[in-house]
């Protein structure tokens, strides 16, 4: 599905009283998910164990 189609489908599923901020947030979430899926498909990922080590380093600072 093309980006515009995905955006229109996403917006159409929101409540009628959704604010512009809520719409923008939903679109940002959808964009992040699509980017993440593309990264996985392209192999641009890190093993879980490596991420755990990175996270431990971040929280120990």
3D structure, described in words:
The chain is mostly helical and 61 residues long. It has one domain (3-59). It contains 3 helices and no strands. It has helices spanning 3-12, 20-41, 48-59. Helix 1 (3-12) crosses helix 2 (20-41). The longest helix is centred in the middle third of the chain and has 22 residues, at 20-41. The relative contact order is 0.09.
Summarize the main sheet: none
Distance between the termini: 42 Å
Shape: elongated
Averaged pLDDT:
95
Instruction: Provide a count of the helices.
Output: 3
How many β-strand runs? 0
Tell me the helix content. Answer: over 70%
Tally of domains: 1
Radius of gyration: 16 Å
* Strand and helix order: HHH
Output the structural class.
mainly alpha
Strand content: under 5%
pLDDT < 50 stretches: none
